[in-house]
């Protein structure tokens, strides 16, 4: 395309700054002023278009008049250099210019009307589509529910879906069943499925069997009830991931990651400082046991890390969190019940298998060492206060923050540079390494792997947050209630 005529910017600015109806009279007034100009002016009037025709035309009008003047036929008997020409050609050119401007404006008005009509039609389409969805919701039949299903089934599903508190009430007994029964019992095989000197592969826990039933049932539902072409969807890919990273945020990923690592290391020094303050309080007579002091140190150090991490994510990648942010997606008024409870059961099955393999590969001496987490779960003298303080971080704040950090930030950040089939395993390994527990790297990697897949398939981080909270709470509840978890090894 060619360059715009001189003064086009002034015309656009004038038309943008005032209504079109207000610009048109100014145009006609400029032409009238030009017609009333004296014939004996020293400078040809068409060379001062801006002054004669007003600001709406500017230099563009003068240039157009120059081009039209070149095509004006001189009057009969006129000679070159005989003085200023008559204003008749100028008026003719001016009228032609006004007509051209009006025609172009009429064309633009027609185009605008067509665009408005198209927008209205599109809007009507969107409204009708939304209305259809609302009608489907009112009808009580979700899209995946067969049309032959009774109406009350769809009504019940939609009623539960719209009430997160009701989903929590339904999830609680299913969770209690898993903690109190499935996790504490199992079958002992007559001999090890795989001969080994450690006595492994000789038991099958009820929780492993329950997870297998949920997994197989899900595949059957997808194939038989939903009639999907594939019972098992591609796990390491996502056509519509639950995140969107802008180019500006992509350039900030490395810097944000470095700041997060520094903040994590600094929180460790903060925990040491907190420990010294707690010892000082004990010296001043505050009744704190060794287990309670340890629990407060871990909790406060963890809260420092959480506060610093959230602050970094919000400041460097603003907006990061919903609703304005697009890095992650969490929804409560949706059907997360099946995803969370089913994902929890299946997670237990895969974790048990990875745990058995972990005991088979690593020396037994590694599993006899006490870690900070094990001391929080089983404090000295069964200190209830220490257990209550120690469970706040693992059961409440850690599930939320770790899911935000690893599934909400790290996974999308890795997906910017790696394909999804590589980003999910890498984020899972980093999730396990972050816990600084060598004997738990393999099982935690499997958990991170399962939870990353659940997030990309459900498009809802609330699912993995709930699973993570239930998982950590099970350990503390089992210790508090004195339950002995049934394992797949002796």
Automatic annotation (TrEMBL):
GO terms for biological process: CAAX-box protein maturation. One of its GO terms (molecular function) is endopeptidase activity. Pfam families: Rce1-like. Residues 391-473 form the CAAX prenyl protease 2/Lysostaphin resistance protein A-like domain. InterPro entries: Rce1/LyrA-like_dom. Coiled coil: none annotated. The chain crosses the membrane at residues 165-184, 204-221, 257-282, 294-313, 334-354, 408-430, 436-454, 461-483. Residues 98-128 are annotated as: Disordered. Keywords: Membrane, Transmembrane, Transmembrane helix. Residues 98-124 have a biased composition (Acidic residues). This is CAAX prenyl protease 2/Lysostaphin resistance protein A-like domain-containing protein. It comes from Porphyra umbilicalis.
């Amino acid at each position: 395309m060619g360059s715009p005529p001189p003064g086009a910017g002034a015309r656009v600015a004038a038309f943008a700054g005032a209504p079109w109806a207000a610009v048109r009279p100014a145009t006609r007034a400029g032409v009238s002023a030009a017609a009333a100009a004296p014939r004996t002016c020293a400078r040809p009037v068409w060379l001062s278009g801006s002054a004669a025709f007003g600001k709406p035309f500017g230099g563009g009008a003068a240039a157009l008049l120059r081009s039209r003047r070149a095509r004006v036929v001189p009057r009969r008997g006129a000679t070159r250099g005989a003085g200023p020409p008559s204003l008749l050609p100028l008026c003719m050119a001016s009228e032609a210019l006004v007509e051209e401007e009006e025609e172009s404006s009429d064309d633009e008005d027609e185009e605008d009307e067509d665009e408005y009509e198209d927008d209205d039609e599109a809007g009507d389409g969107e409204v009708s589509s939304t209305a259809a969805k609302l009608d489907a919701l009112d009808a009580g039949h979700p899209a995946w529910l067969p049309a032959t299903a009774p109406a009350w089934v769809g009504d019940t599903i939609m009623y539960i879906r719209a009430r997160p508190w009701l989903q929590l009430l339904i999830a609680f007994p299913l969770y209690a069943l898993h903690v109190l029964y499935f996790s504490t019992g199992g079958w002992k095989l007559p001999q090890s499925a795989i001969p080994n000197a450690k006595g492994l592969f000789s038991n099958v826990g009820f929780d492993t069997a329950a997870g297998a039933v949920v997994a197989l049932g899900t595949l059957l539902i997808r194939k038989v009830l939903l009639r999907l072409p594939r019972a098992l969807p591609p796990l390491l890919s996502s056509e519509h991931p639950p995140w969107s990273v802008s180019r500006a945020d992509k350039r900030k990923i490395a810097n944000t990651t470095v700041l997060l690592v520094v903040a994590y290391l600094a929180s460790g020094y903060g925990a040491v400082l907190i420990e010294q303050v707690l010892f000082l309080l004990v010296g001043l007579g505050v009744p704190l046991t060794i287990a309670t002091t340890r629990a407060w140190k871990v909790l406060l150090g963890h809260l420092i890390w959480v506060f610093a991490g959230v602050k970094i994510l919000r400041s460097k990648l603003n907006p990061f969190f919903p609703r304005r942010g697009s890095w992650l997606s969490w929804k409560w008024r949706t059907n997360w019940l099946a995803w969370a409870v089913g994902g929890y059961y299946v997670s237990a099955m895969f974790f048990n298998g990875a745990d058995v393999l972990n005991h088979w590969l690593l020396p037994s001496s590694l599993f006899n060492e006490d870690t900070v987490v094990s001391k929080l779960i089983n404090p000295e003298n069964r200190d209830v206060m220490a257990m209550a303080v120690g469970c706040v971080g693992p059961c409440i704040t850690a599930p939320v923050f770790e899911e935000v950090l690893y599934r909400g930030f790290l996974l999308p950040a890795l997906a910017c540079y790696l394909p999804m089939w590589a980003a999910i395993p890498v984020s899972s390994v980093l999730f396990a390494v972050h816990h600084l527990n060598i004997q738990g790297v393999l099982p935690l990697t499997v958990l991170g792997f399962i939870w990353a897949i659940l997030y990309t398939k459900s498009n809802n981080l609330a699912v993995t947050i709930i699973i993570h909270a239930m998982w950590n709470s099970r350990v503390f509840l089992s210790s508090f209630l004195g339950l002995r978890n049934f394992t797949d090894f002796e």
